[in-house]
Design a protein that fits this description.
OB fold (Dihydrolipoamide Acetyltransferase, E2P); mainly beta; six-stranded mixed beta sheet
Length: 174
Amino acid sequence: MTDLTIASGSKTHDDMDNAGEMKIVTFELGDQVFGIDMRSLIEIREWAEPTPLPSVPSFILGVSNLRGTVIPIVGLAERLGWKPSVIHPRSCVLVVAISGKQAGFLIDEVNDIVVIQQSAIQPAPDVEIQEANVISGLVQVPDRTSENDKDAGSMVLLLDLDALAITRHLDMAA
């Protein structure tokens, strides 16, 4: 597997605002499918063991060098309160921009880049949790094999990267 660099940063006509469309990157974590706004994605990297750091939260797995820049690698499963991901050949790291900083998220597998309608995003359920909701919404994404059946597909949980509240930990790790 080779690394894939994605042009990101400012909003482009192709990324959003084309009749209310938005591109998301979908990926698996455990048995759940998640998505992030493609504008936040910098790169998809093959898994490489990061350099561990002392005295950081357990979900920060360590740091890696990204073309001369040290970035923290976060175990997304642990950050969400789940058991740690098991590393396998399709494990990879999504390098994303969060509040002007970069971080890598260990995920189980990248699925696809899909275009969704912003109007199709449903609000996250209002449930009582200990921290701000890290899910910004949910959207039904058709499976590639069932494009003609609007009811078939996967429910994708859209992550709110800013709500993951890791930016204060990024300064400690980087």
